[in-house]
Amino acid sequence: MTRKLLLFLASTLIAFQAMAVEPTSNDVVTNPAELAAVDAVEEDDEWSFWWEAGANIASNYLWRGYDQPYTGNMFDPAIQPSVTLGYGNFYVDLWYNFSTISKYQEFDMTLGFDYENLSITLYDVWCANGADFWQNDFLDDKNHSLTATIQYTFFDRLRLHWGTTFLHSADWFYNEDGTRKRRAFSSYFEVAYIQPVKDLFEIEVVAGASPWTGPFWTAGKQIVEDGERWLDYDPVNPPVKGFNVTNLSLTLSREFEVGSVTFPVSAGYTYNPTTNRHYALIKTGFSF
Length: 288
Fold this sequence. Notes:
The protein has helices spanning 2-21, 32-46, 215-219, and strands spanning 49-58, 62-63, 66-67, 78-87, 90-99, 104-115, 118-129, 144-154, 158-168, 172-174, 180-183, 187-197, 201-210, 221-224, 231-232, 244-258, 261-272, 277-287. The N and C termini lie far apart (68 Å). The protein is mainly beta. A hairpin with a 3-residue loop joins strand 12 and strand 13 (201-210).
């Protein structure tokens, strides 16, 4: 009896193993030519044209810890439409901002490359407070900046970001007589950590800083390098030199999908130690 039981158990085990390795109806075995055709289709899908479009509405427009109208106000609703045209890993993005209270306008043209966790961009920013994008002010090179960024995300959690400005009319160190001395190459470095909370939302913690004196975006003033004289052109922000932390933020976000349309929603808090200002930011929008 014991011998029959052992034989039965052994036979059952062999049968289960055979069932586990036997190809199912979904496991189609193809020949090498068919496999090559499938690979070619997948490669064509990777290198094909694609596009995205959408718009956001934000309670304020914050960038690197600064409200871009430079008013210091927490509430300045901004409308931000965008469209992206891509081919494979390369894309061109057009993005516009209109702040409804301060009338601050900005238009960004970005050339980008994304591959897995790596992102590289080169973008031109036109921005002006009070100037009209729809008039000839857009052609004024004093309102343009050219910036390059590189970003990498480790383990889908830890993001490192670096950006350097290579061209802007205010991104200079000055001599005492007000003449230009050398370019400042204003830069920004950011460390962010993203933590999903089940399927409810994501928490993002960000710490960003200017690694050296950045007159283009941190000081709001022209920097006199070898003296104490400051040439004011923005009375709101205090002059800063050297390394400065500008962005400490905490954001909760979630995306909702209805068909092919995505609706992102986020709420966050930002503190800028350089200007000693606090901001609450609420943002929502759609993309398809």
